[in-house]
Amino acid sequence: SALSPPSHQALVVRALLRTSVQERKEILEDVEYNIFAFPAGLVTCDYLSDSGTSAMTDVQWAALIRGDESYGRNWGYYCLLDTFRDIFERGGNRLYAFHTILAGTTTNEFYRSKLLKPYKDSFVNGGPHQLESPNFFIVPQGRCAEFLLFSTVKEVMSESPPAENESVPSVVISNGFFDTTGANAAAVGFVLETFTQPGLTDPFPEHLFDRQNLFKGNMDIAAAELYLDEHPGQVALILLTITNNWAAGQPVSMANIRAAAELARRKSIPLFFDACRFAENAWFIHAFEAEYSNKSIPEIVQEMFSYADGFTISLKKDGLANMGGVLCFRDEALFTRRYKGIGLRLKERQILFYGNDSYGGMSGRDLMTAVAGLYEVTKESYLRNRIGQVRSFAQKLRANGIPILSPPGGHAVYLEMNEFFYGCDRQPGDFASVGFTLELLKEYGIRAAEAGPFGWQWDKQTPENRGKIPNLVRFAVPRHVFSDEHINYTVAAIKQLYNRRHTIPNVEITRGRDMRLRHFSCGMRP
Ligand code: F0G
For 143, which of 189, 231, 316, 359 is 20 to 30 Å away at the CA? Predict the structure, then answer.
């Protein structure tokens, strides 16, 4: 097969502290065995999250220096507006803002550009000569965009309830809610319904590993439609998470996005994306969906977003930035017709809680790194290397006989823990997979996160929902950070633990069992 050359090299290097098993053991006790609280400086390989953990490129660092920290209308604001239009809408003038900013074009030339003219049905209205962009909201990170969206929809709905014989929509449906997304929707009173295509943990034939992908992140359209038929008028939004982080970072196909959009139109319900890993998703479409092998990543991204009424995005993933988030929606679409006046309410809330609308809680330099990052992340050479590293990690685990969810998704490799513990008599409520992460951290300084009965709160679910919870441990791979050395060390460590899996302890919750998002802050004990 054709060789794939490397896509980048390291520029800045950080040395890792060497700590002993005994030191890590003591610190684990100090932090009540909560891996989120374990000091990162003592971790050798940190797979806790791919969010905000990317190493930036030289171009991003260059852009950072060009950041403008003004209180009103910093120029990163215009750059980000322009970039969003470039990346997510058809007909953008690719790289304009980016080249302009890096080349040090005078502000006068920049502001006179006609690129940001408002146009119909856009995610990014407003331009240099206008007071504001009424449908584009910068926030500090993804969950703030979620809070802004769900709380404001709720508020607008409760102020203008439907006619007497109609019910107030109280449900959000999705192919999979990320933990903060689900928690934000639930916290303002929405009921969540998840329709992931069945078969997430079904085995996948090894010989097809590198050639096919099942798009296991898809929404189960038939099940969603049945639900909508049985609950007319009750669904406020359809949210498609791409890639599907709830379903092990699995991609969603263009066909599925299109089908979800058709369903949403037919039922007159706005379709939003949780677009955190949109570029990785586009790569899977390019690589594995027949009609798209000849389309470029930017073209695929633009088609994907042509089906959405709006989206939330954390720039900490496929923005390749360390911080940032955005909420935007089409200015003249279903969403604004259905929730009248929502734009102004969102703006009010954004300014109250996060910051004025041209920075929304982000520093000017972070805005600039996201601008550069969004262009870098949509390059095919970057994505080939990125997805390639995750897949090669997965392949090495398989070659060592370690059960993983396959094929691997975009940003992480997941161990299949029911298979891992096969024959060891572990029950979901034993939280043995948490025990595995504690052993891995103590013995090898490797941090991974349980995404199973503990994280998804098996003990607090109805028997029906319990059945839907997979038993996984996630190794999220930070972008541009690890080399084969890290991956090989990790595979060898997992192998050693696998060989003595009978000795891995179960874990109990000692404090904070009933908190929302408890995995971040509860206490535990092996
Ligand atoms: N949506 C998805 C699909 C996510 O994966 C995340 C974060 C968010 C929303 C929230 O974004 O962190 O910027 O507020 N996921 C990270 C993870 C934290 O580790 O998977 P945020």
Answer: 231
Strand partners, 382: none
Residue nearest to atom 21 of ligand 1 (CA): 142
Mean pLDDT of 72-87: 87
Q: Which domains does the chain have, with CATH numbers?
A: 21-42+380-525 (3.90.1150.10), 136-367 (3.40.640.10)
Cα angle for residues 96, 367, 135 (degrees, 5° grid) = 80
- Per-residue pLDDT of 344-378, as tens digits, reads 999 999 999 999 999 999 999 999 999 999 999 99
At 391-434, the pLDDT tens digits run: 999 999 999 999 999 999 999 999 999 999 999 999 999 999 99
Residues with CB under 6 A from ligand 1: 49, 51, 141-143, 178, 180-181, 241, 245, 274, 276, 314, 316, 325, 476
- Listing DSSP states for 333-358 in one string gives SHHHHHSTTHHHHHHHHHHHHT--TT
Beta bridge partners of 397: none
- The full DSSP string for 463-494 is HHHHTT---EEEEE--TTT--HHHHHHHHHHH
Identify whether the C-beta of residue 439 lies closer than 8 Å to the C-beta of residue 504. Answer: yes
Indicate the pLDDT class of residue 5, thresholds 50, 70 and 90.
confident
φ, ψ (nearest 5 deg) of residue 367? -60, -45
Tell how far the Cα of 274 is from the centroid of ligand 1, in angstroms.
9
**How do strand 171-174 and strand 472-476 relate by DSSP bridges?**
unpaired
Cβ neighbours of 229 (radius 10 Å): 9
Distance 277 CA to ligand 1 centre (A): 9
**CA-proximal residue: ligand 1, atom 16 (nearest):** 51
Q: How far, in Å, from the CA of 152 to the mean position of ligand 1?
A: 20
Contact 475, 393 (CB under 8 A): yes
9 SS3 class: coil
Q: Which pTM was predicted?
A: 0.94
Highest mean pLDDT among 37-46, 158-167, 452-461: 37-46
Residue 50 banded pLDDT, cuts 50, 70, 90: very high
Distance 518 CA to ligand 1 centre (A): 16
